[in-house]
């Protein structure tokens, strides 16, 4: 096991990379996303005491990653060697329970992402994402650029800016430079 200290915005996993270690976040926050045609789509966040089931799935079979993972703030990560994980899962039932609960959580997150994309308008998608980020950071003030929101929602910055302005006019939020306050 290795402790990794990562600065804000550090990529820790890339699509196509062989997964040799499974990250467990001790402190901080990760963003897990995928890309297609130069667009990004946020899949889920990983906070303290959580792990990445996509890495777990790839690591346990000595496979490659299907996702990207990036820190959203300074983050401490415990790296579990993938080649020892099968043995540890048998030796330590608590570890097995941890990964099973992570699978359930991430499955629900992915269903929520699909539901938002298919059944909700962009203003609802933005508000849902902002509320999620507020819950993750325990603050109604979110430091994020319009481009970062666009990346998370797989759309253009122009669309995000236009919808954010409408939401501000509807008194649902207040916009400042690189900051959004949810009302």
From TrEMBL:
It comes from Nonlabens ulvanivorans (Persicivirga ulvanivorans). GO terms for molecular function: DNA binding; DNA-binding transcription factor activity. It holds the Pfam family HTH_Crp_2. PROSITE patterns: HTH_CRP_2. This is Transcriptional regulator. Residues 120-183 form the HTH crp-type domain. Keywords: DNA-binding, Transcription, Transcription regulation. GO terms for cellular component: cytosol.
């Amino acid at each position: 096991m290795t402790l990794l200290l990562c600065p804000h915005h550090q990529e820790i996993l890339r699509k196509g990379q062989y997964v040799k270690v499974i990250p467990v976040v001790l402190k901080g926050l990760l963003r897990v996303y995928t890309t297609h045609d130069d667009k990004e789509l946020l899949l889920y966040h990983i906070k303290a005491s959580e792990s990445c089931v996509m890495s777990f799935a790839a690591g346990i079979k000595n496979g490659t990653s299907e996702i990207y993972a990036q820190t959203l703030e300074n983050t401490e990560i415990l790296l579990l060697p993938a080649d020892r994980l099968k043995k540890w899962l048998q030796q330590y039932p608590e570890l097995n329970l941890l990964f099973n609960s992570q699978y359930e959580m991430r499955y629900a997150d992915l269903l929520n992402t699909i539901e938002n994309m298919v059944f909700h308008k962009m203003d609802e998608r933005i508000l849902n994402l902002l509320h999620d980020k507020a819950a993750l950071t325990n603050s109604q003030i979110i430091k994020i650029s319009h481009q970062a929101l666009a990346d998370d929602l797989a759309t253009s910055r122009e669309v995000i800016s236009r919808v954010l302005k409408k939401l501000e006019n509807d008194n649902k939020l207040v916009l400042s430079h690189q900051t959004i306050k949810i009302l």
